[in-house]
Input
Amino acid sequence: MFPQPEVPQPQASQSDVSQPASEQPASAQAANVRSASLQLTSTQSRDEFSPEERRMLLTLAHEAIASALAGREIPLDPPTAHLAEPRGAFTTLYLHHQLRGCVGHVVPIDSIYRTVAETARAAAFEDPRFPPVRRAELPGLQISLSILSPLTRIRAEEVEIGRHGLLVSLGARRGLLLPQVPAEQGWDRITFLEQTCHKAGLPRDAWQRGATLEAFTAEIFGDDAQ
Output
C-alpha cells in the first residue's frame, strides 16, 4: 500500500490500482455509516447484494479484524457462488463516527469474500494515516463496505455526481475517488474531475489534456443499515 498525497479534501487513492488504497476522512456528516446503491446503468435499479449477503460480508469484515488481533486464522472460502465472483472493494472503518481507516482494491484481484476480509484487515492495521486498531476499540468499530462494479471508460461530460467513482490515469500516475466523495463534499462535475486529477499528482486540468478517465459504481452498505 502507498501513502497518499496530502490534500484538503476527503479522497481515495491508488498509486497502483492492483494494490490496496486508502480513503481520506469524509466530512463529519458523512462519517455516519450509511447504505446506498449506486448503479452503472439506469436499468439496474435493485441492490445486487441481498440483506443476508450484506450481513455475511459485514460479519466477515469484523471477524477478519478480531481474528488478526487474536492471532488466529479464519476460513475464507466464499459461502456462495455470488460471493466467489472477483470484484474490487473498499472497507472503511469508523470509530465514534470518525474515520479510523480505509483500504481497497479498484481492480478485482480475488473473490468478493476474500477481498472484504483482506481489505478489512488492511484498513485496520496498514492504513499509514492511523495507528493499528487495538482490541479495546473493537466494540465501537463500525464498518462500511463499498463493492465496486468493473471499470468502464467514460467521457468527462458523462460523469454523474453521486453515481460514478473515477479513476484518472496518465503515464504512471493514477488517482481514484469513490462515488460518495463528491456528493458528500458538494462538488460539481468539474471539481470532481479536477480533484481526481489532483489525487493522481497530475495538473487539475489533466482530464482535458489526454488523461484516461474510467468510471465505476459502488453498492455501499454498513453496520447501521444492512
